[in-house]
Design brief:
The complex is a heterodimer of chains A (302) and B (55).
Chain A: H1 4-30, H2 38-62, H3 68-101, H4 106-129, H5 141-167, H6 178-201, H7 206-232, H8 248-258, H9 276-288, H10 290-295
Helix pairs in contact in A: 1-2, 1-7, 2-3, 3-4, 3-5, 3-6, 4-5, 4-8, 5-6, 6-7
Chain B: H1 2-27
The chains are: A mainly alpha (302), B mainly alpha (55).
Chain lengths: 302, 55
């Protein structure tokens, strides 16, 4: 039996998310941060779309304009698609955050980017392989696939924030930087989604499920408040990255910078059309004093 | 501050892993799990806009 009071509360809470997200998008535009945080800006708008879809579909039902079944159909199919887009945008956002956080150490950034890309690809392959795993006959394969992608993205977000929590100072950005703020908010949402999904999967009744969703709204609103605070305050200047002269990280950084770089090319012979006047001068010099030219290794190769 | 942030990050990571493990056990059937009859689909209408809904 559908509890209309709980549904009204849930719709109100989801609508209140818009009161955080839209001003946040406005602040990003106002402070000309859209290009710098393009992944985050896109993430906000995907979130806004999902919220609007939910509020409109449930609002129409609560206004008795459509049946609950129609409201579900209106919401469920586009929301699956939006959920997939949200996962992709979240990966893009995390990639950007990682790039920005490690920009002070280019070698480690290069190596870390390769690791990050591999982790993402493996996560996607694992999500795709869900289709071939044995599963509950009540579950839809596409739903399982989307769930798996969401889980992989959430775990990546949690790993990223743990990495930042332990290395933020060393990376020169500190806990006050927007990169850390965004990643912390993402981790809050990721934990919320994982816990809520786990609870929801064992829920027997609609009212229980809705109650869990209502509780799950509070960490989401907290994450949005956190983002707002981080974007309203000034970004602290990045600190210098210093390391002890004996730190192996210096060597790793230099080594990683060189990884994948092809060696420079050396010219060993020139075509006859290559700088004829220079060749003429060089030849004259070598003819005038062949011994000195030979001792300096000067030789014209045609 | 450093300790609080790190504790929170680790707490979220471990909670997320635990929930993910539980979810994995519920959504897939391993060789040790034979709970084929469990009706684990979500109730219609109890979905959140930021996640999917079982249809």
């Amino acid at each position: 039996m559908l509890n209309l009071s709980l549904l009204r509360i849930l719709v109100a809470l989801v609508a209140s998310e818009l009161a955080f997200l839209l001003p946040l998008a406005w602040v990003l535009r106002r402070k000309s941060l859209v290009r710098e945080f393009s992944g985050f800006y896109a993430y906000i708008w995907v979130y806004v779309l999902a919220d609007v879809l939910y509020v409109v579909s449930r609002g129409l039902f609560l206004s008795s304009l459509i049946s609950y079944r129609t409201a579900n159909e209106l919401y469920n199919y586009p929301s699956d698609f939006l959920f997939l887009i949200e996962s992709v945008v979240t990966i893009w956002l995390m990639y950007q955050l990682f790039q920005k956080a490690t920009s002070g150490i280019p070698g480690i950034q290069k190596l870390g980017t390769v690791v990050f890309q591999w982790a993402t690809v493996i996560a996607l392959i694992m999500a795709g392989s869900t289709i071939f795993t044995p599963h509950d006959h009540h579950s839809y394969l596409t739903v399982l696939f989307f769930l798996q992608i969401g889980r992989s993205t959430s775990i990546l977000a949690l790993c990223l924030v743990t990495f930042f929590a332990f290395t933020a100072q060393k990376l020169g950005m500190g806990y006050g930087s927007r990169v850390f703020g965004i990643s912390f908010g993402l981790a809050m949402l990721a934990t919320n989604v994982l816990v809520r999904d786990a609870l929801m999967w064992s829920t027997a009744s609609s009212a229980q499920g809705m109650f869990i969703n209502i509780l799950g709204e509070f960490p989401q609103l907290a994450a949005m408040t956190l983002w707002m605070v981080y974007f309203l305050k000034a970004e602290p200047a990045r600190k210098l990255i210093t390391l002890p002269s004996t730190s192996p990280l210096i060597l790793w950084n230099e080594t990683a910078r060189l990884l994948g770089n092809s060696a420079g090319q050396v010219v060993v012979s020139y075509p006859s059309t290559f700088m004829p006047s220079v060749r003429e001068v060089a030849e004259k010099a070598s003819n005038r004093n062949p011994a000195a030219a030979q001792s300096r290794g000067l030789r014209i190769v045609s | 501050m450093k300790i609080i942030v790190r504790t929170l990050a680790l707490g979220m990571l471990l909670t997320g892993f635990a929930a993910d493990h539980y979810l994995a056990a519920k959504t897939t059937l391993s060789a040790n799990s034979v709970d084929v009859t469990a009706t684990s689909s979500w109730p219609n209408g109890s979905c959140n806009p930021n996640t999917f809904c079982a249809k």
